[in-house]
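Support case: user asked for a sample of complex input and structure output to validate their parser. Sending the pair below.
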Amino acid sequence: MKSIEIKVKSNCCQTNNLESQVENLKENKHLPVAIIGAGSVGLAAAAHLTKYNQPFVILESGSQVGENISTWGHVRLFSPWEYNIDKVAKVLLAKQGWKEPNLNELPTGNELVAKYLKPLSNTPEIKDVLHLNTRVLSISRKNIDKMKTANREKLPFVLYTEQDGSFKLFEARAVIDASGTWGNPNPANSSGVWLKEEASVHEQIFYGIPNILGKDKNRYLNKRIAVIGSGHSTINALLELATLKEQSTEIEIFWVMRKQRAEDAYGGEDLDALKARGELGSRIHQLVDSGIVNVITPFRTQYLQGINGKINLVGDKNGEIQTISNIDELIVNTGNRPDFSILSEVRTGIDTVTESVSALAPLIDPNIHSCGTVRPHGEKELRQPEKDFYIVGAKSYGRAPTFLMATGFEQVRSVVAYLSGDIEASEKVELDLPETGVCSTNLNTSNNSSNNVSCCS
Ligand SMILES: Cc1cc2nc3c(=O)[nH]c(=O)nc-3n(C[C@H](O)[C@H](O)[C@H](O)COP(=O)(O)OP(=O)(O)OC[C@H]3O[C@@H](n4cnc5c(N)ncnc54)[C@H](O)[C@@H]3O)c2cc1C
């Protein structure tokens, strides 16, 4: 059995004055802020903490920064560099002589990691406090569980982690959870229920966006493939499959979705203010019209059957049970959900519908809003019942698929200002998002109106 090493990490600053030391200790000021996740938002939080000279640690489960982004690294983003770089991070990078990319270009996920996140993580302010291969398992207040209230706010947080196979504790004065939702996918089942039937065929399912024209190519050659979903990620996978079909004509492509009509998934096309995103919609529209992509909609998958090495999708189509048979490979892009298992001992306010931070739900509920209509928000909206604990980034949106990095940068700017005592800055709104005017504010996918379009995934 593997031995378990217990180390207690405490970052105690030095002070000569006993009184202020006692005062600091009382308020845990000697402890760092712990950031969970070194994605684009976690690293932006780090940059903002350096601006205020606040000690911090970053705990990242992956072996590199931008671990989640790297899993879809071959995909091109739809927002240009201008919106993918945090302003304070840019200042840190500039001090190291960083060469800024062309702000009008659209990076791939891999370029975002290589040209921005990695250099940022290598700045002297960040590199020594970044802990890779460190998975946070749970967070609590020191020596008490969620039930205890007395003195709760004065106690430091303790983060239970597994680092390179060993158990390790970190203490912190505040926690910023920027651990995202990617990597915790929704199932194929249209009711969101994970069934053992789905697990039994998992080797033929890819959750996310496979690199169809690159390392995963052989998996899809000459196969009968179904893609479930209707967002940006699904459209990316379908476009790549269509390109592969030019070399491997036996490929059959089925696009399975809950929406009433394929048109409801095309987005704004020519009218989309984010040009690249509009083009994706137009290209998939053409592939459907030309019959290269076979649309099966509305189809609500109920369960999967594995039979003789093939998958059958059994679902409800307009009230009748139908089967899409003999599928070789399934690509599931039904969205992601937050993992709350690490938060069971802290007090959280989570919306019951979206699983977002409670106060954000009315701003982002995709039943009502699309990404263009999300109001900027900051510390006040993100504040949790557990003092000095914040959920930011994609995870703050819960299951809502409309998160943009620029929104996350604004979130951490405000949260870090608040944690650093700069209340005035925390209350300001400094978000500058692209105008996405084509997004509907009354999204209703069961309505046949072509005005009702989604622009995010
Ligand atoms: C295909 C695709 C295209 C996109 N295009 C755009 C775009 O054009 N513009 C835009 O603004 N946004 C875009 N997005 C959205 C945006 O990239 C993501 O929402 C963004 O990466 C979210 O950042 P994050 O830091 O919140 O989370 P993530 O990038 O997911 O980072 C979370 C980090 O936390 C780590 N982690 C998870 N659990 C733990 C744990 N328990 N302990 C320690 N570490 C942990 C992960 O390894 C990861 O590194 C796109 C998303 C996808 C999927």
